[in-house]
Specification:
globular, Rossmann fold, 9 strands, 10 helices, alpha/beta
Length: 330
């Protein structure tokens, strides 16, 4: 038995995978928690699996009230499954399916008329920031300290109260953020490097405030980089780049030193990211043009990998098989 709650249309991809991998005689309840729809808790018991699915990078901490509620209705943690684009959540008490299929599918669907970006670079980098995160604020401060702002295009639309006044110059920038999936703006596509500010799961220094319970994930910011034939430099949670490699993407380790990815201290990591931006900005534009030409086959491979993940629920099957195996403790 498979039931679903909170979806406009049946989640046929997940249902199809369950029909191929799930043990018989079990009940499955698939929930989109963003919808606000409640599960029929009175139906749950020890034979029930609850699959919480979202295309956000949500770690188990997003569901710190839902999980105990499910426990109270007899659903053990080993039968609670979070399916999200959170790609690593080592301290989770429940099970996970780490996937980018849903949001990647949405993004790739916008590429119907996409023209491959083989244009020569006109500037070094682009760094787009919409909502405020302390990490983004700190990164732009570090980039300003390294005097790289004139080599790239930077936006920061939602500056916080008390922000570094130097960042005000980026609020009214011409680069369009009206559509986060926009990949036609010449100031975006004219950059060779994309400084991608994925939401980070880390408290702000000297506080215990965590604004987003995200672990490493991948969003349209990274998809846009791959679609535009750009070299990524990520401001992201610890071990994010390692997760992206595991998904099959070329992260250009021979071009960018991603050592920042294994730096646990987020402030040090931000400075290491800014150092990589400064290194990129030391190249003359003529060298950027040559570098892009050299990397064109690898850019194409990343675009094809993006398309490979889109609507490809079978990618998840090995994870589901391990999850349902008898020797798979949490």
């Amino acid at each position: 038995m498979i039931k679903h709650f909170g979806f406009d249309f049946p989640p046929v991809g997940i249902i199809g995978v369950l029909e191929r991998t799930a043990p018989p005689d079990c009940k499955f309840y698939i929930l989109d928690p963003i919808s606000g729809v409640e599960l029929p808790y009175h139906e749950l018991d020890a034979n029930s699996y609850v699959i919480i699915t979202t295309n956000e990078g949500s770690s188990h901490r997003w569901f710190d009230r839902l999980i105990p509620t499910l426990n109270s209705y007899g659903v053990d943690n080993d039968r609670i499954i979070i399916r999200s684009c959170c790609l690593w959540d080592p301290d989770s008490p429940v099970r996970h399916i780490h996937t980018i299929v849903d949001e990647c599918s949405d993004f790739v669907s916008t590429l119907t008329d996409h023209v491959v970006n083989t244009d020569s670079p006109t500037h070094h980098f682009v760094c787009l920031n919409c909502g405020h995160r302390w990490q983004r604020h700190r990164l732009l401060q570090s980039m300003l300290d390294r005097h790289v702002q004139d080599q790239g295009k930077i936006t920061y639309l939602e500056l916080p109260a008390g922000h570094d006044q130097r960042l005000s110059q980026f609020r009214g920038h011409d680069v369009s953020w009206q559509d986060q999936r926009n990949i036609t703006d010449p100031e975006i596509k004219g950059a060779l490097y994309n400084v991608i500010t994925e939401t980070a799961y880390e408290p702000e220094p000297e506080t215990n405030i965590i604004t987003h319970h995200h672990r490493p994930g991948m969003t349209e910011k990274s998809y846009k980089c791959f679609a535009l034939y750009q070299i990524p430099i990520w401001l992201a949670p610890y071990r994010s780049v390692a997760c992206y490699r595991n998904l099959g993407f070329d992260v250009f380790d021979d071009v960018v030193d991603h050592a920042y990815d294994l730096e646990i201290d987020p402030v040090k990591r931000i400075d290491m990211v800014a150092d990589q931006v400064r290194s990129a900005c030391q190249l003359p534009i003529a060298d950027l043009v040559k570098l892009k030409q050299q990397l064109l086959p690898r850019f194409e491979q990343n675009l094809q990998m993006l398309k490979h993940h889109a609507n490809n629920f079978s990618i998840e099957i090995p994870q589901w098989q391990v999850l349902f195996s008898s020797n798979n403790p949490i």
